[in-house]
Design goal:
By secondary structure, the protein is α/β, with parallel strands linked by helices. It contains 18 helices and 29 strands.
Length: 713
């Protein structure tokens, strides 16, 4: 195998992620998107960036403190990565605010949505209303905190918006620092009634941000003091939990303790108003111990996640894309016996184009069915008022044997999952927390049922979480089957998770961290061998991220052997396509649209006898080596054709796809001479129908057009 170790063949993971956030930002600048949708995408870039800092940047800073100098996949040291990230994120933030202040806000105003970003812009009538609103609604909630010789600098909580001020006793020159937290229990967006606005209702609707209301009235919080200046600021702390599971006597209690420590983590980012007073800036910088390159001067409202609340304001549906309602799964009619439907044939669901309800109904039916003996399920992320949790509780109360693996280490969902775990235990479920040192990320549910011909196992396998809320927003695939071999493997999975018992062999499922990575590399190398022998070879993979070096090197090797490789990668991609004698047979595209691309799908031509798999794992070291993941095959020819058609449609996207260039950057697809096709819109139109072929005959061969030729299946 050729040596593919050169750093020039790889993109740094963190910079690749920032390019993904730039692609999301591209949707905020895309004038073909409705105005409020553009606002939503801008909000998403901000929430993405918050998590990136709290986890990825925090991790690099920890490495820097520890003196870790090993180079990454792209040959960059920790210091080099942090420097490059700082440059890229400052540029990204500048672009965010240029888009907001110079494009979106003027367009909103033209549509009658007036957002006052500076309280100095209020008219006399508006100011009078705001002052009354402050005294009646806001003032009782606030807790101003001054700093002097008897009062130390207070704890500024992670991700909270605050207003810092310099105050002094009247008649005295000395200045002290004071701060007040903008309360999250109050709406950040305050609407000013039309009777107080210039032009009244004819001018549209007028809003102001809560921090501006407080800043205008800061003098009322510090009576007998002069307020020399007041400016908003916000900090980001290291929120990456460090848990020694070997030493933790009670994992649940240890995680609860670590969650509280997030509020004390090192400050890794400070956002301040761009015109902040220099003296106030120096106090914040010193007291928060923040580095210069971690300070972001913001030329507008701090924390753009509030734009999601703006998106949710009633009355502007004409500025939004029509809400999509998932279509029913035609194989499962209302009121039908879901177990009978699964016995008839495997059922493949494509969310959110098809409803997630059959998955919920599967659990609910199992909870009520007197013939069901046991339900076993993994839970990684669930919704706030989860019907699946309620069904599992009901099943336990009905005497079923219910085993639930709740992953307590699901990042930023730890608190929710602790609540669910305790609630399930109280209902009588057997709750387990997985394997030491590994996150259980696989999505699997097993229902054991007594039937006339004996015990039958029904299984749901998915690429996404058991979350009925995100199932309306994330694209995922789910399989319902009662195939005997998959049922046996599902039983083995839960026995391994609950009792550390690994079976002697597996039938159909491939698991990480046991051998899934080896399986992927074997499948890639098989395509390379076929290509060298002149046999048909082709790889299509749809994942969220690719950054595992060994997998990338296997793909490079297959490309050099002549294998056509088409990758659909939403986020991080450390692989560079199109490099001569390395990756010239590889293409990479990223699709960013109204739904978040989340499914993982793998196609291998296999010399004309194609194999199709779905799973929970990306091509990342964390998925392949440090998580429990499952890859499952699509065996039914009818469903296999459907999955292949999904891949073909994604590869044909000319509207939302961006193509990666050999230097690792991205550009929109070339639309010249090509029909405009949005894969997500196409899936909406074709929901609940077989998009590969209508009523395909098992074992038939059809041709599905894809880029570069026809896919023979």
């Amino acid at each position: 195998m050729k040596d593919f170790g050169s750093r020039e063949y790889y993109v740094n993971r963190e910079l690749s992620w920032l390019m993904f956030d730039e692609r999301v930002l591209g949707e905020a600048t895309d004038t073909s998107n409705p105005l409020m949708e553009r606002l939503k995408f801008l909000s998403i870039t901000a929430s993405n960036l918050d998590e990136f800092f709290m986890v990825r940047v925090a991790s690099l800073i920890d490495m820097q403190h520890a003196g870790y100098n090993k180079r990454d996949i792209a040959g960059m040291t920790t210091d080099e990565q942090l420097e490059a990230i700082a440059d890229a994120t400052h540029e990204l933030v500048d672009t965010q605010y240029f888009v907001l202040m110079h494009s979106l806000l003027p367009l909103m105003e033209a549509e009658g949505i007036n957002l006052i970003t500076k309280h100095e812009e209020l008219t006399a009538d508006e100011a009078a209303y705001i002052d009354r609103y402050f005294e009646e609604e806001v003032y009782p909630v606030l807790t101003p905190m001054a700093v002097d010789s008897s009062r130390p600098f207070p704890l500024v909580r992670n991700q909270t918006l605050n207003i810092g001020a310099l105050i002094g006793k009247r008649g005295e020159e000395s200045r002290d620092f004071a701060t007040v937290q903008v309360p999250s229990v109050l709406d950040r967006i305050v609407e000013i009634p039309s009777e107080y606005t210039l032009g009244g209702s004819e001018s549209g609707r007028t809003f102001i941000l809560l921090e501006e209301v407080i800043e205008r009235n800061m003098h009322k919080l510090f009576l007998n003091y002069d307020v020399f200046c007041a400016y908003p600021y916000r900090i980001m702390r290291n929120a990456d939990l460090t848990i020694d599971e070997e030493e933790a006597a009670d994992l649940l209690k240890e995680i609860e303790k670590q969650i509280k420590r997030r509020q004390w983590g090192e400050v890794i980012r400070l956002e301040v108003a761009d015109d902040i007073d220099p003296g106030l800036m120096e106090i914040l910088k010193k007291e928060l111990s923040v580095r210069q390159d971690s300070i972001y001067r913001i030329p507008g409202p701090i924390d753009l996640t509030f734009l999601m609340k703006m998106y949710g304001i009633d009355g502007f549906d004409h500025l939004k894309r029509e809400k999509y309602i998932p279509k029913p799964v035609k194989e499962i009619n209302d009121g039908a016996d879901i177990f009978e439907a699964i016995r008839n044939h495997d059922i493949l669901m494509h969310h959110p184009y098809q409803s997630f309800d059959p998955v919920i109904d599967f659990v609910k039916s199992a909870a009520k069915d007197p013939d069901v003996l046991a339900i076993k399920q993994t839970l990684y992320r669930v919704s706030g008022n989860s019907p699946i949790i309620a069904a599992l509780e009901e099943a336990a109360e009905n005497g079923k044997q219910v085993t639930v693996l709740v992953e307590l280490k699901a990042r930023f969902d730890e608190e929710h999952n602790i609540v669910w775990a305790r609630r399930l235990e109280k209902a009588g479920c057997h709750v387990i927390y997985g394997l030491v040192g590994l996150k259980t990320h696989c999505k699997i549910m097993l229902v054991v049922r007594r039937e006339e011909d004996g015990i039958r196992r029904y299984v749901h396998l998915g690429t996404g979480n058991y979350n009925d809320s995100t199932a309306k927003l994330y694209t995922d695939l789910g399989l319902l089957t009662c195939a005997e071999q998959i049922g046996e493997d599902a039983t083995a999975v839960f026995n391994m998770l609950s009792g550390y018992s690994e079976p002697l062999y597996w039938n159909r499922l491939s698991l990480a961290p046991l051998w899934l990575k080896d399986r992927f590399i074997h499948l890639i190398e098989r395509e390379a061998a076929n290509a060298r022998e002149g046999k048909k070879s082709h790889i299509i993979a749809k994942v969220n991220s690719i950054c595992d070096k060994e997998v990338i090197q296997a793909l490079y090797n297959a490309s050099c052997a002549g294998v056509r490789i088409e990758l659909i990668v939403r986020g991080i991609c450390c692989l560079k396509p199109g490099i001569r004698d390395v990756s010239e047979n590889i293409t990479v595209r990223s699709i960013v649209g109204d739904f978040l691309e989340h499914s993982r799908i793998f196609y291998f031509e296999n010399a004309g006898n194609c194999e199709v798999y779905c799973g929970s794992s990306d091509w990342m070291p964390r998925n392949l080596l440090r998580r429990v993941e499952i890859m499952f095959p699509i065996l039914d020819e009818r469903l296999k054709n459907k999955v292949i058609s999904i891949l073909a449609t994604l590869l044909a996207d000319t509207v939302k796809a961006r193509v990666e260039l050999p230097d690792g950057t991205y550009e929109r697809t070339d639309k010249r001479g090509r029909d405009l096709l949005s894969a997500q819109e196409q899936f909406c139109e074709n929901a609940a129908e077989s998009v590969a072929v209508k009523d395909p005959v098992a074992n038939s061969r059809v041709f599905i057009p894809i880029e570069g030729g026809n896919l023979d299946v």
